[in-house]
Amino acid sequence: MAKVFDHITSELQHFIAQQHLFFVATAPLSETGHVNLSPKGLDCFRVLSPNRVAYLDLTGSGNETSAHVQENGRITLMFCAFQGAPSILRLYGIGQTLLPNALEWDSLLAEFLVIPGVRQIIVADIDRVQTSCGHGVPLYEHQGQRSQLVAWAEKRGEAGLAAYHQEKNRVSIDGLESAIASRSLQEVAYCTEE
Questions:
Q1: Phi, psi of 180 (to 5 degrees)
Q2: Cα separations (Å) of 117 from 82, 133, 150?
Q3: Residue 185: what pLDDT?
Q4: CATH of the domain at 154
Q5: Distance in angstroms (rounded) separating the CA atoms of residues 178 and 97
Q6: How many domains would you assign to the chain?
Q7: What angle do CA 140, 50, 37 make, to 5 degrees?
Q8: Residue 113, domain extent
Q9: Residues near 34 by Cβ (< 8 Å), separated by ≥ 6?
Q10: Nearest Cα to Cα of residue 97 among 26, 180, 168
């Protein structure tokens, strides 16, 4: 049976810290727009307070989450227990995208071990926390994190990543601009000159 909380309890924070994988869901306002659901791994999630969380958003083939939260803010994060007692945790809230030029960037980045390929930080203010049984979630054994994304980002370098962001991460599949789109071309030129 589902339980609803108005904040992330210390017990739920401990549950989050034990998970190796979480999912992020967002959607545009358009009724014909595509709902996005992304799996996230690596050590990129932090509970900042009982009602605020953040994760390092690494470079990917698209940037749907940023475009959707730019438009309407809605975000849901989900954690599932794949080992031990069954449980599902959903965090509902309003998200925002922080780019490296944001005032809060340095203080938030200090919360994480920096992973090559970070393009932005997604922050969410949580207004509903819900648990459910998770009895239908299968048991899986965690074998480790994949290394391909980090290796790809290291190989591209900062300038290559900045160019990739401008080419591939500016607009969602439904035509919405992401936060990356608001970065000035001068900033990108600076990154490519380094």
A1: -55, -35
A2: 27, 35, 7
A3: 40
A4: 2.30.110.10
A5: 9
A6: 1
A7: 45
A8: 3-137+145-193
A9: 27, 28, 64, 173, 174
A10: 180
69: buried, middle or exposed (CB in 10 Å: 19+, 13-18, 0-12)?
A: buried
Is 145:20 a contact under the CB 8 Å cutoff?
yes
pLDDT at 194: 41
Q: Report if pTM > 0.85.
A: yes
Distance, CA of 186 to chain centre: 26
- Residue 183's pLDDT is 59
Residue 182 has what pLDDT? 67
Contact 79, 15 (CB under 8 A): yes
- Which 3 state secondary structure label does DSSP give 68? helix
Q: What is the DSSP string of 135-159?
A: TTSPP--------HHHHHHHHHHHH
Q: Mean pLDDT, the chain, as a whole number? A: 92
pLDDT score of 193 more than 80:
no
pLDDT greater than 80 at residue 20: yes
Give the DSSP H/E element, type plus range, for residue 26.
strand 22-26
User: In which residue are the tokens 């459910």 written?
Assistant: 132
Cα separation of 37 and 66, whole Å?
12
Length of the chain, in residues? 194
Distance CA 99, CA 157 (A): 17
State the angle between helix axes of 148-168 and 185-193 in degrees (0 to 180), rounded to the nearest 10.
140
